[in-house]
Design goal:
Blueprint: E1 4-9, H1 17-31, E2 35-40, H2 55-58, H3 67-76, E3 79-85, H4 93-101, E4 114-120, H5 130-140, E5 147-154, H6 167-178
Parallel strand pairs: 1-2, 1-3, 3-4, 4-5
Helix pairs in contact: 1-6
């Protein structure tokens, strides 16, 4: 069965390692005949959540920025893939802000069931990803029909595009996409 897959790339860096992981995941998912879209937060205007909770009643955020378009796509996707660089052992700030702003999804009849995390870090210790994984799991736990299906820990990728030399990590992202 073909799935609607949304990949959200949260890095602001040109030629980012996490974006490269997202592209590899996409190649596999497309080859498996899924409908795949990548959204990059690189040039998106995304404001902080103000905690008003109006979205809990209306399923719409009162802040007028580019998040509405992303939330609408998240709502109707079967699979959501978050791709992030690791900064100080945590997900990127852009990813955290997007997760906070996705609060209108909480009371909705969302379609997503499968969540994936693709992460890239300069640190070579896979534990450097644990903070991001814990943060994402906290978000997933708020959506009882969704679960974490896979994680790619792209360690040892410090310079821009340096993950391209780590063929085993790229293959893992591709294979994960192919088996989504």
């Amino acid at each position: 069965m073909n799935k609607k897959v949304l990949i959200i790339s949260t890095s602001l860096r040109k030629n980012s390692n996490s974006q490269i992981l997202a592209e590899e995941f996409k190649k596999g998912a497309v080859e498996a005949e899924n409908e795949v879209e990548i959204i990059s937060l690189k040039d998106k205007k995304i404001n902080f959540c103000i905690g008003c909770l109006a979205c809990q009643k209306t399923q719409k955020c009162i802040i007028n920025d580019e998040v509405k378009e992303i939330i609408d796509k998240m709502l109707t996707s079967d699979v959501i893939v978050f791709s992030t660089p690791i900064y100080f052992y945590e997900m990127s700030g852009q990813m955290k802000v997007l997760l906070d702003r996705s609060n209108p999804l909480f009371p909705s009849d969302y379609s997503f069931r499968d969540i994936y995390l693709l992460a890239a870090s300069a640190d070579t210790d896979k534990r450097s990803m644990d903070g991001a994984l814990k943060g994402l799991q906290g978000w997933i736990d708020c959506f009882e029909k969704a679960s974490l299906k896979g994680v790619i820990k792209g360690t040892g990728a410090d310079e821009s595009s340096s993950i391209s030399a780590l063929s085993d990590i790229l293959k893992s992202a591709y294979d994960m996409g192919k088996n989504v």
